[in-house]
Amino acid sequence: MVTAMAALTLTVSLADQVFAQTKSVGIFNLSLGLIEHLSRRPELARLTVLANRSLTGRLPARIGVRWHDGPACGRLRRMFWDQWSVYAAAAATGNDWLFLPKGFASFLRPPPRRLAVYIHDAMHGFYRQHHPKAISRLELAYFSRSLQASLRHAQVCFTNTEFTAREVCRLALAAGGPAPRTVVAGIGFEQTEVLPGIGRGGLLVLASPFPHKRTALAVEWLARWQEQTGFSEELHWVGGLPNELAWPDRLNWRHHPRLPEGDFRERLSRARALVFVSDYEGFGMPPVEAALAGACPVFSDIPATREVMGGCGWAFSNTDYASFRHALDNALACSPEVIAGWAGQLLARHRWETVADRLLAALQAGSQPG
Q1: For 8-188+351-367, CATH number?
Q2: Which residues of 91-100 are buried (b: 16+ CB within 10 A; e: fewer)?
Q3: pTM higher than the cut 0.85
Q4: Which CATH code of 3.40.50.300, 1.20.1290.10, 3.40.449.10, 3.40.50.2000 fits the domain covering 203-349?
Q5: What is the pLDDT of residue 206?
Q6: Residues facing 132 on adjacent strands
Q7: What is d(CA 276, CA 241) in angstroms, rounded to the nearest whole number?
Q8: Residue 9 predicted with pLDDT over 60
Q9: How many CA atoms lie within 13 A of 137 on its CB side?
Q10: Cα dist. 99→56, 71, 335 in Å?
C-alpha cells in the first residue's frame, strides 16, 4: 500500500537579513536563492516568508510575505526576534515547518513547529580556538548557545558541504548530545552571462576585517607578487579592511568597502582572475562565482574549497608564497576555454534544482509519522 505524501507548508524567516548590515553576503544571497527556487516547487502547498521591508522587490510575487521590520532595527531587537518573536510569528502562519536559513535557533524556548535549520559553518568554534580576542565573549557565547539549540531542537540540519556536516556532528558530540539528522543540501548557482569580446583586465580581490579572511596576508603577497612581476593592471579590492592594516600606497590599487550585487557581478565579469584568501570556510562561494563569470579563480587550499571546487581553478597554500605565485601566474595564463570548462563542471555539481530536491525530500521525510 502506497501512502500519499502530505502537502508541505513552510515558513522561512528572512526578517533578520539586511544586505547593508550583513556580515555574510554569501548567506544573504543563499537565502534569497533558496526562496526563489522553493517558490517554484509544486510540493509546497504554502510558502510564507517572514521579511523586513529592505527586501521589498527581491522576493518572488508567488509567495506569501509577512512583514516584520523589528529585527532589522538594531542588535537588541534582532536578538529578541531570534530568541522569542520568530517562533510566535511562525506559529501565526499555521505552517507545519519553520526554516531558519542562518542556522541559529532560540535557546530560551522550544520551537512551536517542526524546525529545520541551515548551518553554514562552525566559525565561532574556529574563532574560540584561533582568534579568541577577535570576537567578544558575549557574542561567542550567544551564537554558540544558539547553534547548540539548533542541534538539539531541529528535526533536520541542512549544510552546504560534507565538511560542514562533519563539523556539525563534531560539535554535537562534543556537547554530549547525539549527532543530529544532517543533510548536505549544497548551494546552487546560475550561469552568469559572459559577453563575447568583453574587455578583461586586472584582478578582483576579496577583503574583510575578520581575521580568518587573511586580508593582511593577501595585501602582503599581492604587493610582493606585483613587485616581482611588474603587473600594472588594476587590482580592485572589495570588502572591509582590518583596523590595524597599513594600506599600501599603490596607484593601481582600488578599494571598494562594499559593492551592490549588480556592481560586484559587473566588476567580476571584467576581471581576469579573482583572488580569495581564507583560513576557514563552510563552502566558499566566490571561487565558483568567478569561474561562472569567466574570471579564473585563485583560492586558498582549505577543506571546504577543495570539496567545492573539485579540481577546478588554481589553489594555493596559505603558508607558502611560492604556491600563491604559481597559482596566480597560471591563472593569468589560463585560456577562456579552460575557465568555461570549469564553469560547466561547477554548474553541473552545484544546481539549484538539486538543492531544492534535497531540501524538500528531507522535509517530506521529516513530516512522516514515526
Answers
A1: 3.40.50.2000
A2: eebebbbbbb
A3: yes
A4: 3.40.50.2000
A5: 97
A6: none
A7: 14
A8: yes
A9: 0
A10: 20, 16, 42
